[in-house]
Amino acid sequence: MADKDRTDPAAIVAAYDARAQRFETPCGDGMMVWRRWGSGPPVLLAHGSHGAWSHWIANIDALAATRTVWAPDLPGFGESAMPPVEGHDGISAALADGLRAVAGDAVPMDVVGFSFGGVALAWFAAAHPELVRRLILVGTGGLATPQGEISLGRVRGLEGAEREAAGRANLLGLMIHHPESVDALALYLQELNGFRGRLRASSLVLPDRLLAALPRVGAQVDAIWAEHDRPHPDPAVQEAALRSVRPDVDFRVVADAGHWVMYERAEAFNAVLLAMLDTPLR
Prior knowledge:
Blueprint: H1 9-19, E1 21-27, E2 30-37, E3 42-46, H2 60-64, E4 68-70, H3 88-103, E5 109-114, H4 116-127, E6 132-138, H5 160-175, H6 184-194, H7 209-213, E7 220-226, H8 235-243, E8 251-254, H9 261-264, H10 266-278
Parallel strand pairs: 3-4, 3-5, 5-6, 6-7, 7-8
Antiparallel strand pairs: 1-2, 2-4
Helix pairs in contact: 3-4, 5-6
């Protein structure tokens, strides 16, 4: 999806949604919503906190050209209900039951988690090793490393130009590195997904919830980081923390991007992710 195609964000999201096959599986007192595109070897994409499947909107086409792409709304986010019990156990249970129902024999599969989604998938992989072939972490916290400087302001109660300016500042304060990368679609997705997030993710990530799960993950673990990841800065520090528990991790950095790396530098990210997915297991 080229930058010039991002000028009618509601239409873009609706078009991707219309092309997806939609599935619902039980989750707590409601349902967990799954979307699927493409065909070929399966890959599951898990979004970050206060996100939804659309965190991956700039990557779906590139992946779906050769793979079956599964992108759920994680429990407590997007259109999905809260998990059956609090914490990673509840999220993992909903993911496992749902994945078995919608994917059938297409497991174990490669799974890719962005930010909070990476921590959730690490706990999922530890609890359900039979479902995960490879885990790829994207800008994921929970490594007990110093947190970067995050700048988020109030949006609630603002309207019009003031609301847009606050949304733009928040994207630059957390998710995106370059001001010119904050386009209409990024602003729309932040507005659309942000206020649908009901799950408090911080305690499920900080300070070391990823480190707690990784030693119990039997699948291969690799990672992709952004050069300018604001909440988890200095890729070398993050790589060292990962290698302390997974010495053989394939750790790759996408240059000139912020935390939402797969959106801001979609073409470069897609190339790195596809190369990782196509690499034989070690």
